[in-house]
Amino acid sequence: MPHSKALFPLFFFYFTILTTVVSDHLPATSSKLLISSDAVSLLSFKSKADLDNRLLYTLHERFDYCQWQGVKCAQGRVVRFFLQGSGLRGVFASDTLTRLDQLRILCLRNNSLSGPIPDLSPLFNLKALLLDYNFFSGSLPPSFLLLHRLRTLSLSYNNLTGSIPVELVNLDRLVTLRLDSNRFNGTVPPLNQSSLLIFNVSGNNLTGPIPATLTLARFHMASFSGNPGLCGDVVSKACDHPRPRIFGSSNATGYLGQSAESQGNIVVSSLSSKKHKSNSLILGFAIGASILISSFVGLIALVMVSKRSVSKNLESPKTAAMEAMDAPPGKRTEEIDGAHHNSENLVFCCGEAQLYTLEQLMRGSAELLGRGSIGTTYKAVVDGRHTLTVKRLDAGKTAGTNGQVFERHMEMVGRLRHPNLVPVRAYFQAEAERLVIFDYQSNGSLFNLIHGSRSARAKPLHWTSCLKIAEDVAHGLAYIHQTSRLIHGNLKSSNVLLGVDFEARVTDYSLSLLTDSSTIDDPDSAACKAPETRNTNRPPTSKSDVYAFGVLLLELLTSKYPSQHPFLVPMDVQDWVRTMRDDYGAEDEQLGMLTEVASICTVISPEQRPAMWQVLKMIQEIKKSVTLEASICRQRLPCS
Question: What is the pTM of this model?
Fold first, then answer.
């Protein structure tokens, strides 16, 4: 009791000050208003952080604070406090916002707040913390390590010092970690969270080897630049001393049997003496020489095989686009005359039985489905039994591809079989006609599902639908990239169809490689093209497909046509996606994670984009975390 009496005057002193601060923002008629603890927290923060009185916070009614600038509530509790670029000047005082125990997103970036970052451990529900572009100083508060639900931590462009806590590896839900442009020293923690999509520690004073984890190996050297003391494979700088290798979990493998080397999981044995190093060097030269000899022999064999019959040429690893570019114009004309253009029937792919003839196809009923950048699409019914989709390629755009190249290319495309691809069943070519036949998909295209009727404003799909469609499309693209040397080359929502169970199935893959797509009139199709292929003669690559997938994902999340997507830096894409949707609340977290995937897919530099199998794994990790969280919620109610 004596101890309690001693504390009472101190408590009364702080309560008097707080009451004075709050009363300054209340009208005289509201003296008897019951003040929410969340309102008190917000006004306390304003009193220290808004010295220029830019936030016009006034409390007339009990829940007025839910309508204040930057505030979003759920059931009367503040769950989001977003004041990016609001001109705040002052300090982020302790024991203010930290009392918002239901807060999930806190964004104070691009203001002029100074001083140390307060203890944030009471914010146990916090999932996104964005405090970059301020003047915070001091070391990284240990309280961050208690925020196990944290998914986004962005503290770049401050004045933080000390080492980066190694305990950050325990934040197993972390998706974004930005600590760039501070004054951190010490080493890079061995981060290996498979959920981590965006990472940047550039512009610090970090030293030592970069840990060889599967997660850190995914990031480009730009994520580590501006740290002259760093070394390792990622920054292409040898370390003076051998460093231990840190490996990921056994399930962190690539898609469809990708080699361990291509996934960055390279096992390096540490040698304990110069003798061992010398032996290793000799062995390396021997292996290298043998590989070189094997490659030379293989090249000779490839040249010999290329001189054989056309049927043997079907095994050539070159794509049709490469063949067309290699062939001189005069030779193309000669080959067109001698190719199989007078064939009387369809060529069925992958050894399938001939179910109908060209004559039956031509007699069947046809319905125009649409005109695209590479041709016209029809729905055809043959003998009342077979319903097909027929793509009639634009003769003018495919004139530069000779008959043999077209045949070889379609043989490769026709071999692709996957549940998330619409299979090519047959093709036909004549002197002025080229047809590609697919299975008909009765549920229409993803474009129609997203945008609906143009006369009505389409609402964004629920996040579970976005997640499922994104996974399906990523499966199909990853399969194309990893089982062949082909790419899609023209991915967009109109080229994703919906199967009988409304599964997403990619169509028109690799057909654009046969056409001249240097000029695209449709602004939405142009917006799906990767920057490195626009207005240039550079052929598309697998990384171009990754870019188009990112654009498609943003189209899914916002229901905005690709031509309407603004050019934004990754950190601003999150805000744009949220403003395009009416439903925040419970799905805000999932939307954020999917948006992070879209952001990393649409970076300007193709080298910084992940491979498609990595994108697929990211989406699967999101799906796994959502499923796990839902299971926990069902067992432990209520769920936050």
Answer: 0.55
